[in-house]
Amino acid sequence: MGTSIELLTRLHSAKTVNWESVSGRSSLTADVINGAIALAEKNNTIGSYIVKAKYLDDIQALQKLNAILNKLVDDENIPPRIRPALADLIYRVLLEKPLKPQYRRVISAWSRYGNRANRSQKIISDYQKAIKSLKNAKKIKVTEKEREQVQVQIDLLKRRADSERNQLRKYAEEKALSTIACPRCRTVGSHRGGTCGTCDGKGVFKQSSEHMYNHFRHCDVRVSKSQFIEDIYPMIERTLNELYSRESDVIKAIDKNLALERMV
Q1: What is the C-alpha separation between 30 and 33, in angstroms, rounded?
Q2: pTM of the predicted model as reported, rounded to 2 decimal places
Q3: C-alpha closest to that of 197 among 138, 261, 112
Q4: What residue segments make up the domains of the chain, in order of their start?
Q5: What average pLDDT does the chain have?
Q6: Strands of the chain, DSSP E
């Protein structure tokens, strides 16, 4: 990740940033960085949209990029019924978001290793222990009324445990829609001195050609294996390479503009 991207991400972070500590120079203000982006955008609009969409979740850039990808797909010799799913696939890979066949694995990872996971799992475990204790207490109650009162407490704790599970599930699903980063190793690829088994040491959930092929099935679009290999996959690779090149050019341009600002 270039210096500009790191600053760009921090610029749009919800947390307050001390810009002098980040940039090393008070001249690198938010306005200066935005100016460097605007300057780079003049020569590479598509690349700018990619950078803003990928690193800032800029709504306008996301919408424009989506429209551009649909237009690129429409210009290819691809059957119309396949184009929406194809544009969606390229959009997800470009912005480093999971493909549909990856959802289950990514959701499971965030449920187990995400920032919220440990907290939620402890809460659920505490509820389960309390429920077990109450069930034992219920057995020694003498009257029906006493047993009913204990059951009310058990039912309440069960609902709370279910609520916590649902919140954890929602958190994991939201994360799974937004990133292919591995929550266990934090994109490093290793965990406790060994290869991270959650992402197979990649640091991210890599999107293979098989994932891409199966993505169409998850979109209810029928594509033959031969059609995918001969026509669709080469188009995906060609388009992504062009878009990655545009993204790289913008990042280099922003870095160059910021370097010039530091010299002022």
Answers
A1: 5
A2: 0.81
A3: 112
A4: 3-96+226-263, 103-174
A5: 88
A6: 190-191, 194-195
